[in-house]
Each structure stands twice: as structure tokens, then as C-alpha cells.
Amino acid sequence: MPRQADHDLRRRQIAQAVWRLAARGGLEDVTLRNVAAEAGVSVRLLQYYFGTRSRLLLGALEILNADAERHAKERLERLGPDPGVRAAVRMVLLELLPLDEERRNRHLVYVAYFVRFLTDPALAEAVRDTPHALEELVAGLLAQGQATGLVPPDVATGPEGAFLVAAAGGLQAGMLLGQYTAEQVVSLIDHQLGRLFG
């Protein structure tokens, strides 16, 4: 195996250990010693790849974000070459929900990081623009829908995109807390899209 591939694989192995610990017990459980044990590596090797705990948390988050983006693109590609605007908006919103084990675990990790986002500028920077980028993506898709007559011309696509992303975020928390089932949340998303797309 090439050296860079081995390096990337080892970083991913360590990052996955961070995610498992964070999802199970919060960031309090993410110590260098605990991560090393979970990953099956020495603390020294972990420090070689990430250095400090702060850099470990940031590195694991960056890998998680890259994975989430890659998985979303793969799901969008599975919709086919021309999925339609409504299907694309729906896919973006459903990607924000813990509808399967992979997405549930990812969202549990984000929840574990949440308080740290409020106090650690480097971690906050890693996620700060994500909601805005998603809002712009959804707003752009809604504008495409307007151009083709699928979305009424009086819909303000910017605020609507922001609302849809924020609503999905709220539903995500409700699902993690057991307040909503997957079926209820998907039904709510579909209801909102039905309102927009008529």
C-alpha cells in the first residue's frame, strides 16, 4: 500500500474511534488515551498523526464533514441524471436527518461537538458555513423550480431555503430525542415540499 494511502487510512481509523467515543459518551470521553485504545493504536502514534487533543478533534471533524459531503453526492447521483428539482431538494433535506445508522451516528457526533463549537473558534470555523451553503443550495434549486414553473413565482427562495434547512435541523434533534419517528419526519418534509411545489 502506498505510504500516503496508509497515512490516510490510519488517520481515518483514528477519526472513526473519535466518532464512536463521541457518539457513545460525548467529547468528555474523547481523550488521547481513550481514542488510542478504541483505535487499537498507541498514544504516541495518535500524537504522530494529530498532535494534540484539539487537533485530533478538528481532524476527526474535518474527515466526518468530507464523508458527509461525499455520501450526499453519492445519494444525489443515485437519483439519476435528471432527478427533478423537488427530488433534489428532498434529498438534501433528508440527508440532514438521522434516517439510517450512518447518518444517525454522524448527527450524534455533531451533537457531541455542539458545545465545543460555541467555545472553540477552530472547531466553529469547520462548521460555520455549512448551513449557509445548504441554504444557498436549496434556494438555488427552488429558483430552478421557479424558472420551470414548478415553484410559484411569489416564493422567496432565499428565506424558504433557509427555513427548510433550519426546519430539517430541528427535526433532526427531535428524532435523536425520540420525539419523532423517521416516518413522521419524512411526512413533514414531504408536506412542506408539497406546499412549495403544489
UniProtKB/TrEMBL annotation:
GO MF: DNA-binding transcription factor activity; transcription cis-regulatory region binding
Alphabetized UniProt keyword annotations: DNA-binding, Repressor, Transcription, Transcription regulation
SUPFAM superfamilies given in the database record: Homeodomain-like, Tetracyclin repressor-like, C-terminal domain
PROSITE patterns linked to this entry: HTH_TETR_2
Superkingdom, natural source: Bacteria
Portion annotated as DNA-binding: 31-50
Occurrences of domain HTH tetR-type (ranges): 8-68
InterPro entries in the record: BetI_C, Homeodomain-like_sf, HTH-type_TetR-like_transc_reg, HTH_TetR, Tet_transcr_reg_TetR-rel_C_sf
Pfam families noted in UniProt: TetR_C_6, TetR_N
Entry-linked PANTHER family: HTH-TYPE TRANSCRIPTIONAL REGULATOR PKSA, HTH-TYPE TRANSCRIPTIONAL REGULATOR RUTR
Protein name in UniProt: AcrR family transcriptional regulator
